[in-house]
Here is the input.
Amino acid sequence: MRLKVFNPYQLNRTFITNHSLFYFMCLAIPAKVMEINGRNAKVDFGGTFRDVNVSLVDAKKNDYVLVHAGYAIQVMDEKEANETLKLWEEMLGQDKKTSNNFSSPIS
Here is the structure.
C-alpha cells in the first residue's frame, strides 16, 4: 500500500492506496457572530448555534465569519456570506434528492 500526502497546509489532500485515488477537501461554512466572549464567540449557522474560537480574526458582533474545525478563519461581508450559504443550500438540496442517508455538515 502506498500513501502520499501533500503539504498539510494545502486544502486538497490526496491518498493513494493500491489502485484507488481519493481526494479530501476541507470545508468552511459561513456563520453570523451573535456574541463574543474573549477568544470565543457564539455563532449562528442558520438556526444552529455553536461556540467557535475567533482568536485568528478581528470579528465583531453581527459580522459573518468563515468557520473551519471550530475556528473562525476569515471575516466575510454579508453579501458574500449569503451567496455562499445559497450555494450550500443548493448543494445540500441536491444531496437530499440523491441520498437517503443525508446529514447536514453543520449539525
In short: The domain at 27-98 is CATH 2.30.30.140 (SH3 type barrels.). The first strand starts at residue 12 and ends at 17. Strands lie at 12-17, 20-25, 29-37, 40-44, 49-53, 64-68, 71-76.
